[in-house]
Write a structure and sequence with these properties.
The protein has 6 helices and 27 strands. It has helices spanning 2-13, 16-35, 74-80, 104-111, 171-175, 259-262; strands at 38-50, 56-58, 65-73, 87-90, 99-101, 115-121, 124-126, 129-140, 143-145, 151-153, 159-161, 164-170, 180-182, 185-186, 194-201, 207-209, 212-217, 219-221, 223-232, 235-236, 242-247, 250-258, 274-277, 289-295, 298-299, 305-310, 315-321. The strands form 8 sheets. Strands 2, 8, 11, 12, 13, 15, 16 and 17 form an 8-stranded mixed beta sheet that branches. The longest helix has 20 residues, at 16-35.
């Protein structure tokens, strides 16, 4: 057992500096081998068109990118993947309807040494030119989500400045273009007017001038009217030692105004705003009982709403001295 322990100690200590160097070298070799491992990856090289004849545009089916499957090392991938290089397409010497093939050699030249081209897609395309035209179209503000609960969009008052823009593009596309939309606006959290610069969304091959407009979207509060039935009429400020009663005991009221306020009312809390105020009655001290017919209740209205009584608008109030125990 002791020999085994001694063997382990000798293994770790004897020639320790040399062993550390060897271990470090092994780690470096392993990392380098990993970085030199070849990987197959697909990248999209943006196609950049040059030499397009004046007054003409490519139809919208022109490929935007060249998909290239490559085999290369991890080191090389870290150079290419963040921003794949562009592939230039020169049309200055080409004719309409001419077939143009993508060159493996040109792709290899752009990507540089250490990259092997496995596959290109598409391998070619047909030049399809169309006359460039321009027209003026109105701007349509697109709403994808309206405000929640108590607010709404006043669509008739939406404004875009400018209200019309110039669009340029293929004649076949512009022929069916009657307006141009903004990017969708999400107003779900909006409780005030929206105002800001909003980008326009153009179809493929179409350019809008300007590319963005100033948009104002009015956001309004919803109004509501509802009737509250069966609320109990109460008497406030009844003098001490007197009992005040009212008939009829129930009333109905209409609450109308901003929805956020109207929705907060029910049969209980409306009595804070509708009540008979005994302090306004000519109560004489000493009388055992006094009747006050046709008393008009006090009706207060909260901010942004109005309360009105319906049907019963006058009430009878009886005031009597409270009976005391002998």
């Amino acid at each position: 057992m002791r020999r085994v322990g001694q063997y382990i100690i000798d293994l770790l200590i004897v020639n320790a500096p040399m062993k550390i160097v060897a271990l470090s070298l092994a780690i470096v070799i392993t990392i380098n081998a990993r970085d030199q491992t070849f990987r197959d990856v697909t990248i999209d090289m943006p196609l950049v068109v040059r030499g397009l004849p004046t007054g003409w545009v490519l139809k919208e089916d022109f490929p935007a990118t060249l998909r290239v499957r490559i085999r290369t090392t991890v080191d090389k991938l870290t150079e290419i993947l963040p921003r794949p290089p562009e592939y230039p397409v020169d049309l200055s010497l080409k004719q309409n309807q001419e077939l143009v093939s993508f060159s493996l050699e040109r792709v290899q030249e752009i990507l540089g040494e250490g990259v092997y081209i496995v596959e290109l897609s598409p391998s070619s395309f047909t030049i399809q030119l169309e006359e460039r035209q321009s027209k003026t179209v109105p701007v349509s503000v697109r709403i994808v989500a309206e405000p929640r609960e108590f607010y709404f969009v006043a669509y008739n008052d939406i404004k875009a400045e400018p209200a019309k823009v110039t669009v340029q593009g293929p004649a076949s596309v512009l022929a069916n273009l009657s307006s141009i939309e903004t990017v969708g606006l999400d107003l779900s959290e909006q409780s005030t007017d929206f105002a800001g610069r909003v980008r326009l969304v153009a179809a493929a091959g179409v350019k809008a001038v300007p590319s963005a407009v100033e948009v104002t979207v009015p956001v309004r509060e919803k109004d509501e009217s509802r009737v509250i039935k069966g609320a109990r009429m109460v008497v406030k400020n009844c003098p001490p030692d007197l009992v005040c009663t009212v008939t009829p005991k129930l009333f109905q009221a209409r609450v109308q105004g901003k929805k956020r306020v109207v929705d907060s009312f029910d049969r209980t809390n409306i009595t804070y705003y509708v009540y008979v105020d005994a302090s306004r009655l000519p109560i004489e001290q000493g009388k055992l009982q006094t009747e006050f017919p046709a008393v008009q209740p006090t009706v207060e209205s909260p901010k942004d709403a109005e309360i009105t009584l319906i049907e019963e608008k006058y009430f009878n109030v009886s005031v009597r001295r409270e009976a005391r125990a002998p």
